[in-house]
Amino acid sequence: MKIGSLKLENPIISAPMAGISDLPYRLIMKRHGAALVFTEMISANGLFFNGKATRVLLNSREEEHPLGVQLFGEDPERLAEAVKQVEDCGELIDLNLGCPVRKVIRSGAGSALLRDPDKVARIISAVRHATSRPLTIKFRSGWDHDLINFLEIAHIAVEEGVDAVTLHPRTRSQMFGGQADWQQIKKLKESLSIPVIGSGDLFSAECIKTMFEQTGCDAVMIGRGGYGNPWIINQALDLLAGRPVIQPSATERLAVARDHFELCLGTFGPRKTLGQMRKHLCWYVRGMENAAEFRAQINQTRTTTEMSDLLEDFFANAA
Ligand SMILES: Cc1cc2nc3c(=O)[nH]c(=O)nc-3n(C[C@H](O)[C@H](O)[C@H](O)COP(=O)(O)O)c2cc1C
Q1: The overall pTM is greater than 0.85
Q2: Where in the chain is the domain with CATH 1.10.1200?
């Protein structure tokens, strides 16, 4: 599959997720077969003011490429400026039109833009003129039950020159509640000639295969299904190719959890690693015996050595 000039090796993409899709997470997803990985959403205003926290989000390694850089903002000129600053960091630029978080909405960005299609047109036009990189948008199906306008937004995006679109078919007011409406992905695919990427409730290889079958989408984007479970990508690729799907052994889980931990430590140092890896390690042991006890204990750890020892002990006892 191709997004503009960017050729993807397979149709499985790792989603942009604020607080999750940092460099270590992306490397893990890449090593398990993701054809494209995305940064967390990056603020155009943060880039304009040269915020340190914003700049850190652009840290990257050759190994993870191709990399999609996702921007959010509400001002066409500022977004155009931002894209010039980040276009050399990745191979693709994505615009966030889906974030439902109140702080982002209040600033007029993310899914708030779905209420202003004219502004969406101006934003995409400005960004399209600022870069020749493949350009995509990621959006929700609408603002709320009374404003479901994903087809209108998608057609504007095509007219203004985007190369592909990603739909998470929930409205802003649904946040993450209920079920993603995959029928909307199907409708979108039927009405567009550019690639459509499906997102929403992809928690297993079987779900991924079903989304392809039910919607005809060109690629899928793995979000929460990748938490502590990068194998979902290999498994989906195997399933799609008609090969047997293999579950990771405890030894493999430990090896990947350890890798993730080391990558985090090397990237961010001990302090941030303690915060970040608590949730990831809990996800890696999910479903295993004594996982609840592990979760309780990991919240008590005060150093990365304690954390690493706890992980090793847990798996030594699990084997
Ligand atoms: C913690 C979290 C952070 C997210 N951050 C972003 C983001 O920065 N940009 C974005 O476009 N979507 C973001 N999303 C939405 C996901 O990319 C994805 O579209 C959504 O989770 C639906 O897929 P899923 O049900 O398979 O998780 C985020 C989702 C979660 C759970």
Answers
A1: yes
A2: 250-318
